[in-house]
Design brief:
By secondary structure, the chain is α/β, with parallel strands linked by helices. It has two domains: 6-173 and 356-372, Glycogen Phosphorylase B (Rossmann fold); 196-353, Glycogen Phosphorylase B (Rossmann fold). The chain has helices at 23-32, 45-57, 71-74, 86-92, 94-97, 112-115, 152-158, 174-182, 210-224, 265-268, 271-275, 286-290, 328-337, 339-353, 361-372, and strands spanning 6-12, 36-42, 63-67, 102-105, 122-125, 146-149, 168-170, 196-200, 228-231, 258-260, 278-281, 297-300, 321-322. Helix 2 (45-57) links the parallel strand 2 (36-42) and strand 3 (63-67).
Length: 379
């Protein structure tokens, strides 16, 4: 008698950008191990639309999309948020989750289902970035039965402080596999040859440069005329109940040297971090995606942080750190000119952040889950 197929749920309860951190893992799992039934569960129809388009570009897979309910909660979006409250959606679907053999999530809120009594499924955390910010390294990691690490840097900050060694799998960065399929030849939004700066502030006001310096930075670069500017903040900056006012940005609509994207597909699939010539930011992990091809970078220290020696600001070694923006365009010129001084540090930081091997990261991650569920290694 054939054993019943084990059921695995890839769960998406946050913004669309997190889909890129685990969807390719689901595809590899469904293709390589037919003994698993793979569901893709999301809290919005827009998520499933994005997943459907991405699956087509990935070549398809025997996976089953699933829209979570209840509808009234799914339609409840406080403030500027594009998704319903995560904890409430988890609580509303506990019975469904209890029926799976594994739940795979790119965010840590899913750990809540353990506190709410769901004990059966293996809980897997894929991560959704490979940055230095200290917030993601926290006790909820220990709730997961399997935690993935993009590289030795991430692993060493989690193990053994929050994760037992046997519960951590270093798999590389599945998002790199995704972006090659979704947009293999990214195009600049600008037709001219000016150097392009991507400004990518973080969403957390305690760390972000946006509340204090952001609009001034955009205005200075726009007025100076030497650079093209892509303003592509972390998608959560303008997608949360207490989102900043968008109105001041409206005057840049149609500006020939300013392109604003507050969360569209190109803002999450590395289009801008691939086409830009210089990265301007603060603490977002996207600096590491940018450094897949080493290029100049500069960082805005809007909070006066004493950052040297702090591992949460490791990436501030990759370019000049600006303690003020009285003449930001001139500082950007200096960042371009001094890139050679930072190149070795950039290359070292990237290597510590990503354990990339000939086998795809997505397959390595899928195999780590499959092995924990009792399957054989990938052929």
């Amino acid at each position: 008698m054939t054993a019943p197929r084990k059921k695995v749920c890839f769960l998406y309860i946050a913004q669309t950008h997190q889909i890129l951190h685990s969807l390719s893992i689901a595809v590899e799992m469904a293709r390589t191990w037919p003994s698993f039934e793979v569901d893709l569960a999301a809290t919005s129809a827009a998520h499933l639309d994005y997943i459907e388009e991405a699956l087509a570009k990935l070549g398809g897979a025997p996976v089953k999309p699933r829209l979570l309910g209840p509808r009234w909660l799914r339609d409840f979006h406080p403030g500027e948020a594009s998704t319903p409250p995560k904890a409430a959606m988890l609580a509303a679907n506990l019975g469904l989750f209890a029926g799976y053999d594994a739940i795979v999530a790119p965010e840590r809120t899913t750990a809540l289902i353990r506190r709410l009594g769901v004990k059966r499924p293996l809980l897997v955390y894929t991560q959704h970035g490979a940055g230095d910010r200290g917030g993601p390294f926290e006790p909820r990691l220990g709730v997961f039965d399997l935690v993935m690490a993009a590289g030795p840097k991430q692993r060493d900050r989690m193990v053994p402080a929050f994760v037992r060694p046997e519960n951590c799998a270093m798999v590389g960065y599945p998002k790199f596999d995704m972006v090659e399929a979704l947009n293999p030849h990214p195009q600049s939004p600008f037709a001219d040859a000016r150097p392009t700066v991507v400004y990518n502030p973080h969403f957390d006001p305690r760390l972000s440069s946006w509340p204090r310096w952001g609009m001034e930075a955009v205005e200075q670069i726009a007025q100076d005329g030497r650079f093209n500017l892509i303003f592509a903040p972390h998608v959560r900056l303008f997608d949360q109940p207490a989102a900043p006012d968008r109105a001041p940005l409206e005057r840049f609509e149609g500006h020939p040297r300013v392109h604003i994207d507050l969360g569209g597909p190109a803002a999450i699939d590395m289009t801008y971090t691939r086409v830009a010539d210089l990265y301007l930011g603060d603490v977002s992990s996207q600096i590491y995606e940018f450094l897949r091809t080493p290029r100049p970078a500069a960082f805005l220290n809007a909070h006066g942080v004493a950052w040297r020696g702090d591992e949460s600001y490791r990436h501030w070694l990759y370019g000049p750190v600006l303690d003020g923006i009285a003449d930001l365009p001139a500082a950007l010129d200096r960042a371009f000119a001094s890139h050679g001084d930072y190149l070795a540090e950039q290359q070292k930081g990237f290597a510590e952040s990503f354990d990339l091997q000939p086998r795809s990261s997505s397959l390595r991650a899928a195999e780590a889950i499959a092995l924990r569920l009792g399957a054989e290694p990938a052929p």
